[in-house]
Amino acid sequence: MEEVGFFHPDRGYWQAISEPSQNVLDGYPDGTIRVPLKPGAGYEWIGGKWVADEAPE
Hints:
Blueprint: E1 4-8, E2 12-16, H1 22-27, E3 33-35, E4 43-46, E5 49-52
Antiparallel strand pairs: 1-2, 1-3, 4-5
């Protein structure tokens, strides 16, 4: 099984532990897109890619 990532502009990012069934996908809110897995904490989905937050000064 391979984890998969999803993003929705209002609900944020989530991962599924395997490919969701079509029934589950149909229940996701409109506007949900499949995205690469989030590389780690401190990343935001911006402009179609994961962008690292800037380190604090």
